[in-house]
Amino acid sequence: MSSTTLDASTLGTRIDGVLQRTPTGLLIGGHWREASDGGTFDVENPATGEVLATLASATREDAQAAMDAAADAQEYWARTSSRSRSEILRRAFDLVQERAEDLALLMTLEMGKPFPEALGEVKYGGGVLRGVSEEAGRGYGRDSEAPEGTLRMLVKRKPVGPCLLITPWNFPLAMAARKVAPAVAAGCTMVLKPARLTPLTSQYFAQLMIDAGLPPGVLNVVASASAGNVSEPILADPRLRKISFTGSTPVGKQLMKLATDNVLRTSMELGGNGPLIVFEDADIDKAVAGAMAAKMRNMGEACTAANRLLVHEDVAEEFVTELAARMSALTVGDGTREGVDVGPLVEAKARDSVEEFVKEAVDGGARVVVGGSRVNGPGYFFQPTLLTNVSRDARVIREEVFGPVAPVITFATEDEAVELANSTEYGLASYVFTENISRGLRIGDRIEFGLMGLNVGVISNAAAPFGGVKQSGIGREGGAEGIAEYTTLQYVGIENPWDAA
Ligand code: NAP
Predict the structure, then answer these.
(1) What is the CB < 6 Å shell around ligand 1?
(2) Could you tell me the domains of the chain?
(3) Any alpha helices (H) in 44-159, and if so which ranges?
(4) 303 carries an active-site annotation
(5) For residue range 305-317, what is the model confidence (pLDDT) as tens digits?
(6) Per the confidence metrics, is the pTM higher than 0.90?
């Protein structure tokens, strides 16, 4: 069991230790190496602005070499048994447990989330590895007869082939595990490009996968200061079969366009603008607890964040009063410190953007109930912020905020709540609070979101199919569905054995 706090007296030594254990090169064909032009980039701690590490920055040639390594390993890897792939994932799960504090500390350092939250992500990432390990090998096909009796029909699952995996900075371990584990289980080789802001966790995780027994070339990792250096040559390579991307909708659209040339399989986990609906018959304590979890987790930097709190007018005052009390009690600070609830935003640009959202809302008539301002540095902190009287046209309602800002708008009827919830191009996470279960299920039928929490504010689970509709994406990660995304079907029509008799 990992300690949920870091001892301040030994923190410096622990940080030095974990950084030393984190590879800084490019992982290509089983070896960590420098960039072909010797180029590097720095990774910063958003709580202090200090440089944590300097990593090799992949060039286009390095990306091509990573693609070559993935393509070379594909046939061998596809022929390994699903049992052996499952066992590698199980060993990786064990190693994640053993190295949980290293992984959590790295995430706190490079991304900013408080250490206990980072440990929660380690638990989730480990859960993905264990869950996929258990599911590997269960991708059964079928054997049937053609209705006319003319053929025996064998339908089998095969690995889709080499994959390009691109991950965002907000959940460095969870997002990498959700792509790497099902690709491993299905028998695909891969090139992983982690986010420039938070590559250290992926570097550490890749070494952990090697330690768990993953053969050379199956997982190649190419961090780069230039995302295009990696994505462009690899997407143009005819040996690539799939891209799995998690990140913003604009970048996802761009990558989908590039993916059309080679008609690639695409999985897109994109942005969100989640509604959290509180009906007049909700348990308000439960709704407030759900809103805290759905809005404040990860400093609000989550695609699943409740971005818009839609509250029935009869309970709005009670809800806002309770939520304000909970939000005011949060401690903002460096996530390595004990008792901190809200860490820094990931970079200065992110903090400035949140500030702009709040300013525009206030200029449009919103009332600041809690917070509302940046916290002076070093580091990129923003106060937990609760806004009421927010215009329905405000940018803070229409766009994904990615910060600790909770705007409340009120509604009078169920139809209005549904219309408000659906009035976005996104469709990832949604949350509904009502003690009337029929109403809850009815709302699920009426709202266009890939995920819905009913009386609960955290719904991600390694065993569940996670993903969005509309401009929030295509495909699912997690559960058996997540592995199926890395497989393709082959149908073999076989001469009816009785015809041959
Ligand atoms: P982002 O800017 O789209 O970046 C995501 C990844 O794409 C990073 O690795 C980034 O590399 C790379 N990238 C950026 N431009 C690229 C290009 N032209 N070609 C190839 N790769 C490119 O998103 P982010 O700011 O890191 O993440 C936040 C977004 O992710 C939010 O919209 C959030 O909702 C979404 N998200 C969705 C899910 C989900 O499951 N649906 C989960 C988590 C996050 P660099 O780091 O080098 O720019």
Answers:
(1) 166-171, 175, 193, 195-197, 227-228, 231, 246-248, 251, 254-255, 269-272, 303, 400, 428, 468, 473
(2) 8-269+473-488 (3.40.605.10), 274-460 (3.40.309.10)
(3) 60-79, 82-98, 100-111, 115-135
(4) yes
(5) 999 999 999 999 9
(6) yes
